[in-house]
Amino acid sequence: MNRIKLLSAIVAATFAVQFPLLAQPLDSSSIASGRQVATTLCANCHEISPTAYPTTVVGPKFDDVANLPSTTALSLNVFLRSNHNRMPNFILSSTDTDDVIAYILSLKRK
What we know:
The chain has 110 residues and is mainly α. The protein has one domain: Orthogonal Bundle (Cytochrome Bc1 Complex, Chain D, domain 2), CATH 1.10.760. Helices cover 55% and strands 0% of the residues. 20% of the residues are buried.
């Protein structure tokens, strides 16, 4: 049992180091920055907020993405760093990626 606790602590620490967003609460400056990045890069195809409508809806609404049961900081991080078939492959900085993730997670209904 102690080995399981130790292994769990090591895994948690590893994720916290590799994915800083997972280890921190969402802050308003990250959310605002993420919304700005999303407005610049994503708003042509996605509704990024209930008040920002794209000219052509191609992808899902960010609100819908946020409220999927599978949406977590880790799943968004993996998705944003993977190649996409129907999306442009934007290369975001780690900070921009974390901020977009913070913005999307802020849309999750409580």
